[in-house]
Amino acid sequence: MTSGSIHRPEDTAADAPTQEPEGEVAPPQEVDGELAQVRAERDAALAKLDKRERRRQIGGMARRITVGVLVALAAILIPLTATVTWAHRTILNTDEYVSTVAPLAKDPAVTSTLARVATNQLFAALNPEPTIANALPPRAAFLAGPITSGVKNFINDKANVALSSQQFQQIWTNANRTAHTALVNVLRGKSKALVESNGQVVLSLVPLLNQVLQSVQQTAGDLVGKDVKLPTLTGTELPSQACAKISAAINRPLPSTCGEIPLFPADKLDQAQGLVRAFDRLMIALLIVSPLLVVAALLLTRRRRRTLLQIAVATLLVMVIFRRAVIWLQDKLISTGNPANEAARKSIVDQLLSGFFTASVWILSIALAVTVVALITGPYRWAVTSRNWVGAQAVAGWRLTRDAVSGKSAAGQWVLSHIDLLRVAGGLLAVLLLLVVNVSWVGLLIIVVLLAGYEFWLYRLGAAARPAAHPKTAA
Hints:
Oligomer: single chain
Shape: flat
Mean pLDDT: 75
């Protein structure tokens, strides 16, 4: 007991009942109940966590599957959109169609084939062998065949010359533009004017035949035994009407299908119009859906860079498959048909498909550029190292260029010591370019701007160096 404190027995007695005995514990039933409650709460919390985890896993799997489907659809539809858009413009846009087929009139393989076909049709109509045989003595009648062959070769040569002329190229362009405009207007339901012959919607090449006849007009007159005055055809006439005019001029019957290329049966016009409408809608739908698929995939994914790479690489692969399929079709079209016309078929098919290959190159280039940019800007170790190295080189290059332009480096000092020579050399180079290279007005403007900038840089460099070379003396 410490000093200063007084212990009273009554205090101990008063406090004793409020203290629990040391060995007293709660009843077992109460402890078991509390433990069961704790276990139940724990199990409920774990079940709730498990349920959330399962939902998260299911949601993550559904998200990944959805993104994968969107990536696959985008990779297929992007090349398909490019192909359908090219085909739509080439087939149904008159300006695009004419710009595609117009160069064919300058292709020797095509013009020689057309000349041969036109010669065969005209020779069959003129039938000159009886006229030649009647003009020969009886003993020389056997020469009618060789002379006829010689006349045919002569007409074929004249036809080649005629079809290689600028006039024929204009006729070819006008005929294709007129026929295509009329056909597209009919297919779109804007016109009822139909170039129809023997139940077929046809493309008329009668002006081509008339052009050949005009080139051999004197020879044709000799073969039919009278002066031939051929009609002027514009390419807008019905084929039967144009053939009738030529037939009357040469006094020889011509088949009703002369100079025609059948396109499709006339009774299938409603079906063709329906296909054109469906083709229009398909192109519009693809142009809308394809970019939306890309955007949806990038918004839904948690790893946008990887998804963008997947779209770009898959698009590259699908576009390559499309190109291989078109190349196979190209070879098939060229190899099918009369072997004598294979060169012409090759020129025509190559020209018609050139637009597709140009569009496919653009798609491949864009997809490759996206792949490269996504890789280079990524968090990959090699990409980070490459970016740092390129940045350091760019800074060093900029400093070297800055010092050279300002005259601070050795190269800049050399420029300063030869500044007059460099001024003259710049002007001479510009004049040489104008003399050697056939430049347009835009090219001329670019050369003038570059020369002016070059001369101004030399002037500024010399002006900045003069005060340093001749410092002012103090007064």
